[in-house]
Amino acid sequence: MNGTTRTERSTWRNWAGNVSARPVREVSPASTEELAAAVRRAAEDGLKVKAVGTGHSFTAAAATDGVLIRPELLTGIREIDRTAMTVTVEAGTPLKRLNAALAREGLSLTNMGDIMDQTVAGATSTGTHGTGRDSASIAAQIRALELVTADGSVLTCSEKENPDVFAAARIGLGALGVVTAITFAVEPVFLLTAREEPMAFDRVTADFEALFAENEHFEFYWFPHTGNCNTKRNNRSAGPPAPPGRLSNWIEDELLSNGVFQLACSFGRAVPAAIPAIAKISSRALSARTYTDIPYKVFTSPRRVRFVEMEYALAREAVVEALREVKAMIERSPLRVSFPVEVRTAPSDDITLSTASGRESAYIAVHLYRGTPHQSYFTAVERIMTAHGGRPHWGKVHTRDAEYFADVYPRFAEFTALRDRLDPGRLFGNDYLRRVLGD
Fold first, then answer.
1. How far apart are CA 305 and CA 120, in angstroms?
2. CA nearest to 52, candidates 395, 398, 402, 438
């Protein structure tokens, strides 16, 4: 199978519609060799190179006016190693296809985020994560990586092979090369029991450390303009499987979380004064439920309502205070916030630019419906997060720069030195990387 090249200029847009780019050409390589050739040709033509997945990042991390690599032909599983308990998968494989394929083989990732539309390379390169007391981000489950570097050569890395590259490239922001394959740790498929339950804001925040300690995966959503939260606890289960009924699943995941919520957001955008009343109704609409299923069916859920998002990682012990500050800020401001605020956790990891690098972390994510002016809300939240030494998610809206990151990431200079070695000419550079990594 041969890849394709398109040279008529078309506009690429991300999922949220807040980022666009017009590359000189788009290339869809069908093999690592074709991708390496496309990188070499771009260098000869003096063009920058960026790979793009499904565009689920809210930043311009993948935007370029040079050569846009589309990995839709670089998909599928290369190898399952049941002795090492790993799976090697092509970089353009969507997480939902990987999850389904692993389940057919009786295998699973240990933890994952709450959506699975992204490609494996896009999700890991930007630090996509779920929530976990002991199990970390998707990138932390990587055991080996293959990437094409700026000179067109193919470099493989793991803890034993090129370990300095491995430390950084698992969350590489597209700055070190184009990822072509990823080897993940897997385990035998298991069951999770999810317990979703409404809970008062004051109780969740007072009991946060206990709820975190007692559950393998704990998260909650607070509905601004209310004192109401919805909590979710996922824990391993001996079974038997008890998936949500088809009707209740449709009501919760499609009707309330997507259909009615879409209408509520549209109405709220048109009539902002109605948002607090809508929030009170929305926060009471979701009822308690418990179900048991295989991991990806519990961790992930459909997200059809489009939004823009900002998320910051804080030291876990700071998250409750920061969230209370966000609540107080919203209550004394004229802001009308239609989307719940999401709180999750992650253990410390050893990835150079992971938001959880070297510290136990918790995340506060704020969203607004697509098309709603978000700057004043996000700016006010960001002010609170940075006062706590927060680290923004690499794929979500933020205004931080290299000077800030050098301060909040102890190993920042390690990453930029590696970038200088692997891509001295900044073949993989763009405006976003110039801002967050410097020149």
1. 22
2. 395
Segment (H or E) for 228: strand 228-237
Instruction: To the nearest 10°, report the CA torsion of 159, 167, 130, 360.
Output: 100
**What is the C-alpha to C-alpha distance for residues 86 and 348, in angstroms, rounded to an integer?**
22
Write the DSSP assignment of 62-113 as a string of letters. T--SSEEE--TTS-SEEEEETTTTEEEEETT-BHHHHHHHHHHTTEE-S---
Q: How far apart are CA 112 and CA 123, in angstroms?
A: 10
Q: pLDDT tens across 257-316, in order?
A: 656 667 777 767 777 887 777 777 776 767 788 999 999 999 998 777 888 999 999 999
Backbone angles phi, psi at 281, to 5 degrees: -70, -45
Distance CA 9, CA 25 (A): 7
Pairwise CA distance, residues 288 & 53, whole Å: 35
Reading the block at residue 109, the tokens are: 């990732």
Q: Does this model's pTM top 0.85?
A: yes
Nearest to 423 by CA among 160, 42, 33, 54: 42
C-alpha angle 428/11/125, rounded to 5°?
Answer: 35
pLDDT of 248 strictly over 70 = no
In this structure, what token pair is assigned to residue 276? 């607090």
Report which secondary-structure segment, H or E, holds 185.
strand 178-185
**pLDDT exceeds 70 at position 16:** yes
The 10 Å Cβ neighbour count of residue 434 is: 13
- CA-CA distance, 169 to 179, in Å (whole number)? 9
**What is the Cα–Cα distance from 361 to 351, expressed in whole angstroms?**
14
The pair of three-digit structure tokens given for residue 219, joined into one six-digit string? 């998260």
Helix-then-strand count for the chain, H and E? 15, 21
What are the backbone dihedrals phi and psi of residue 51, each rounded to the nearest 5 degrees, phi first? -95, 145
